[in-house]
Amino acid sequence: MMRPPVRVALPCTLAALLLVSAALAKSPAPSKAAAAKPGAAPAAAADAKQLDRLGEPPTLKVSDSDLRTDADFSWSVTLELSNPGTAGLYLDSLTCDAEDLDPGETRAPRTTHLDLTRLIKLVPTLEGGGSNTFQHSNPALAEKAKLTYRLYAHRSDGRKENVEAVANIEPGASQEYASRFVQVDGKRIEYVIVPVLGTTLASPGLLLVHGNGSNARHMLRSARQLANRGYNVAVVSMPGYGQSEGPADFMGPLSVKAASLVLDTLARQPQVDPKRLGAWGFSRGATVVAELAARRKDLDAVVLQSGIYDLAAVHRGTQLPGFAETIVAEAGTDSAAWKERSPILRADRIQAAVLVLHGEKDSHVPAAQAHAMVAALEAKGKKPESKFYPTGEHQVPPADAQRLTMEFLTNHLQK
Question: Does residue 232 or residue 6 have the better pLDDT?
Answer without folding.
Answer: 232
